[in-house]
Write the structure tokens for this entry.
Amino acid sequence: MQQIGIIYHSQSGHALALARAAADGVSANSALSVQLYPALQSGLEALVDSAAVIFATPENFGTISGGLKDFFDRTYYPAEPLKLNKPYGLLVSAGNDGRGAVRDVERIATGYPLRKVAEAVIVRGEITERAIEQARELGGAVACGVELGIF
Ligand SMILES: Cc1cc2nc3c(=O)[nH]c(=O)nc-3n(C[C@H](O)[C@H](O)[C@H](O)COP(=O)(O)O)c2cc1C
């Protein structure tokens, strides 16, 4: 069965809550399986074994978290010959901005390559019900696109 991989890093739980909500959205809207991958403990398998991935990260110092950066640093060269070109979505938890994290994931993803298939969701401040719903919707949209063969 195809799976959606959700690759996340989170210090205080916000991005993790979004990642879990996206996983719920995958399960609620498709028959695909879903796997959560903590970025620091995961490697190339998270990309290879997934039909599509969703990244979830806080914005730290105007960019992605060190944990997700570490994942990209370790997998970039191993992924290069595979020409993955898989669909991806992005969830960013931020204090008051988030745009730097989006910019940098989009730039890094171009190099793998990975294909952006949905607008990034930026959640600023506390994780509200609305934020959970947005993350669920992103998970559902990515899963439906894969299941229907649109991506
Ligand atoms: C070291 C550090 C740097 C941060 N830098 C930014 C930033 O540049 N822009 C922003 O909007 N929020 C910034 N924040 C706030 C976090 O993005 C926000 O608290 C986020 O919800 C944390 O997610 P987490 O609970 O998944 O770790 C920063 C937080 C920390 C700890």
User: Anything to note?
Assistant: The chain is about 45% helix and 25% strand. The chain has one domain: 3-147.
